[in-house]
Amino acid sequence: MVATVSTTQMDCFKPESSTSRPTAFNRCSIAIEKMAPDMRLARQPIRFSRNDGEGIKVPTDWRHGNCVIYLDVLSDADSDTATLFGLAIQANVLNNLCVLKEPHLGGSIILGKDRLLNLTVLGASSPRAPIDTS
Fold this sequence. Notes:
Blueprint: E1 5-12, H1 25-35, H2 39-42, E2 46-49, E3 56-57, E4 60-64, E5 67-73, E6 79-82, H3 84-99, E7 106-111, E8 117-123
Parallel strand pairs: 2-3
Antiparallel strand pairs: 1-7, 2-6, 4-5, 5-8, 7-8
């Protein structure tokens, strides 16, 4: 499996240091399902980059209600490989550890073959609000 993760690189958001709004486990579960709708394709390694023509362009997101699953590389020059299936599994881990439990704000995790992808699960102020992951 290409999407690997180190638990030391996962953080749940805290109210005093986050712009995330509370969101619901069920909303995020539906957003996660949107990440990999075709399991046959979801298991194929994909390159993620900010460069046009190099796999899937990031940042990208999957949403349901005010829950946002947000994926980006760590810097402009970075690109990394993962599977949508692996990303969905890790989004589910964040949903279970950082959304299901209070304060329901979500969290982020660094993953990918070279650990250059940042996957964030968070609550937005409204369903189409711009994302602030700072």
